[in-house]
Design goal:
Elements: H1 2-22, E1 30-33, E2 38-40, E3 50-54, H2 60-71, H3 73-76, E4 80-85, H4 89-99, E5 107-111, H5 117-122, E6 129-133, E7 139-143, H6 149-155
Parallel strand pairs: 3-4, 4-5
Antiparallel strand pairs: 1-2, 1-5, 3-6, 6-7
Amino acid sequence: MKCFLCLFFLLCCAGVAFSQKDRAAIPPFKIRLTNGDGFTYEQVDKNKPLMLIYFSPSCEHCKAFTEALLKQKTKWANKQIVMISYVHIREVQAFDRMYHLSEHPDIKIGSEGQTFIVQQYYQIQQFPFVVLFNKQGRLTKMIRGPLTPEAMMRLL
């Protein structure tokens, strides 16, 4: 019985380690952009680092972070940004119109709908949630938690 419990424990630990290792890669997202086009993780530009932002259009922290992000274009001038929400595309479109995000060629903004792939991939519970990836698609930084927009920008 002890051997069975030990084996079970080791398998669980290996599963957790495997899951965390997998989360170092870009999540397999599929979103609908505000212009109606589809966009997936496979279409990410392999020549630029990626900033993935998970947000909610009604989140005051997300609005403040977006405003701070747009004021500091030099922080993301060499990156591509993918902004993903889970809410209906109409709400994301309204957010996009408010901040003119899709007018920037390096920003893609859309909804993953009720698939919750990205939200479950990172167990996201607070917004905004920011993940940075290098050109090879490997995670370099994860920013979560109740931070001010300025503090989040300093971490980028």
